[in-house]
Amino acid sequence: MYDRQLLLGAKRNSVLELSEVQRYGLDSYGDADYVSIYGMPPTDWYAKGIRLLGRTAVECTRDRLADAIGQDVALTLATVSPAARAFVIDPFVGSGNTLYWLLRHLAAARGIGFEVDATVFQLTRRNLAIVESPIDILNADYAPGLADASVATDQMVIAFIAPPWGDALSKTSGLDLRRTTPPISGIVDFLFGRFKENQLLCAIQVHETVDRMSLTELTSRFDWSTRRIYGLNAPGENHGILLGTRGWVPGRRSQ
Fold it and tell me: Is 253 contained in some domain?
């Protein structure tokens, strides 16, 4: 089996051949085109020169999920006038595919992603240049990287938050949002402080089962929140997003 363990083990830091990408999708999900990114199946993106590491192929948000997230974020922002000029942040950008789809659904927005791994950063910057994406990718930690970001106080800030889960996902209690690396609450608190003058929307990637206490602790920080799960995989393997706002509530226009 050409499975997740292999791509997070021996092949973790290897640039994959097309056959390896397809074998992973076929063996793990019964779909050779599972790792579709930037709106293309593997045969198409590989032919254009796009390349992924083993761990990125496993951890990236594939097109169907990234598209669904982008649609839900756009719908949430539909009643807010500053949404058209949003500043979109991905603190753990990886392949950049979610940020790519967010900007497809928010055409006038500006996007910035942060990646601390130099190899992933170089590949992602190259990949996004191939698809002519306007996303800015920085080889930096998000906290110092955002220190000098120029954002007007009347500009909507959107953050897609998907830190590494590590051992935060339990088969019994689900995803503990306090045990991601770093904890999601710390990321949210940082964003609240950094953008305290802005309306903020956080789109946090979650699993279909979430530790209830960790969910309650996190959602208590927001003015409004909702959770969406996308039935794209087999039961027990689905992801979704927790949407949370600070400084506004969807459906209520600013006065």
Answer: no
